Amino acid sequence: MKKHILYLILLFSFSSFSQKITFEPIVAPIQSFRIKIENKNGILFYQHDKSLNPLNGDYKISIFIKDVNAKDIYIVENGVGKMTLKYDLPYSGYIRTNIVNNGVFIKGYKNGLWKTTYKNKLVKIENWRKGLAIGRYRVYNTKGELLYKTSFGKYGHGQYKDYYYDTGQLKQEGAYENGKKQGEWCDYDKNIITKLLLLLFILNSNSICSQQRNLQLPPISLNSLFLNTEIRNGIEFYSYNYENKKIENNKLYRIYYKTIQKLNHHPNDIIRPTSDFAHGQFTEITSTGYFINNLKNGLWKTTYKNKLVKTENWRKGLAIGRYRVYNTKGELLYKTSFGKYGHGKYKDYYYNTGQLKQEGSYENGKKQGEWCNYDKEGNLIKTTYYDQGIPKTD
């Protein structure tokens, strides 16, 4: 009898105790470089980099970037010495960004509410349904001030923007349709001239942003004085005329525009006397982008005194898509889109004054008709006529 009573007391105590226990969902911490991402039908699919098992459950992802200063080092593996990239070693080749993403995966796809923190402060709220962007979206700076808000609604339509949370500067923009990225997506450097590109874990995947995946740090520098341009079938073909330096595919280039007024060093130049950058005087204008088969391709950005002043898009040397010009204060001077087929009015400006510098038209991505150049006072100094990109000679 006593045994039965003791048993009932223990059973009642355990039942009461168990009712008071509340278990928090288990949040699995993981580093971003431990995740592999694939693009499946326009939706990002997340999996463990080793096992390739899809992520499932609640995760807290610490975002890392690659250390651009990492070099090849000597290691011993299984008794055999070899050289390896520092990137290949855990942690040592990466730098923590203080950005953390927290949310739930269902069979490899983001689902429900996701929160992003920067230095332990909430900076972004987004919603997903099986990998599709939906619902409310908010971005804040580190002071808690709202930078951007929108809703992608039930069906995932709307304009996306993300920011550098400490400065409030625009970092990325694009559009969603049916919960998937659609059309042109643009990424902006924090300091215009990139010192450290945020290669987030998404770049390890077969991302839509394939051009970003091929970015190299630092960009390969070109002196405009040695950059030759030749018109081939109405398209500008670029080559580089300095020693054995060539323009290659899938490499990021930065053109430094120089004049021959002064043959000496400039504080921004590479100081080696035998370098191609020992020649000319820097105008403080640069253009950064990709070539494919010596033709401009993809997004190109122009800066003046380290400030973004122009963005343009190319497809194998043909002008297409969105085109924007800004002054040095960041104010929009001109915007248009040449569309998918490259039709529209082109204008360029003197970025410090906003004075018109050049205007003309594109047809089928090539210069067409009258193109005019103006000096800083607005006087017409040159007129050129084009026929399908080829300048006419009288």
Structure description:
The model is unreliable at 11-24, 84-91, 192-217 and 262-273 (pLDDT under 50). Helices cover 6% and strands 54% of the residues. Strand 26 and strand 27 form a beta hairpin. The protein is built from two helices and 28 strands. The protein has two domains: 27-213, no CATH class; 220-391, no CATH class.
Give start-end ranges of low-pLDDT stretches: 11-24, 84-91, 192-217, 262-273
| Mean residue pLDDT | 80
Shape: globular
Structural class: mainly beta
Order of helices and strands: HEEEEEEEEEEEEEEHEEEEEEEEEEEEEE
| Number of extended strands | 28
Q: Which strand order spans the largest sheet, edge to edge or round the barrel?
A: 1-4-7-8-9-10-11
The total count of helices amounts to: 2
Rg computed from alpha carbons, rounded to a whole number of angstroms = 27 Å
Keywords:
394 residues; mainly beta; 7-stranded mixed sheet; 2 helices; 6% helix
How would you summarize this macromolecular structure in one to three sentences?
This protein is 6% helix and 54% strand. The protein is mainly beta and 394 residues long. It has two domains: 27-213, no CATH class; 220-391, no CATH class.
Please render the helix and strand layout as text.
Blueprint: H1 2-20, E1 27-31, E2 35-40, E3 43-48, E4 57-66, E5 72-77, E6 80-85, E7 94-106, E8 109-118, E9 121-129, E10 132-140, E11 146-151, E12 158-163, E13 170-177, E14 180-187, H2 210-213, E15 220-223, E16 227-232, E17 235-240, E18 252-259, E19 281-292, E20 295-304, E21 307-315, E22 318-326, E23 332-337, E24 344-349, E25 356-363, E26 366-374, E27 380-387, E28 390-391
Parallel strand pairs: 1-4, 15-18
Antiparallel strand pairs: 2-3, 4-7, 5-6, 7-8, 8-9, 9-10, 10-11, 12-13, 13-14, 16-17, 18-19, 19-20, 20-21, 21-22, 22-23, 24-25, 25-26, 26-27, 27-28
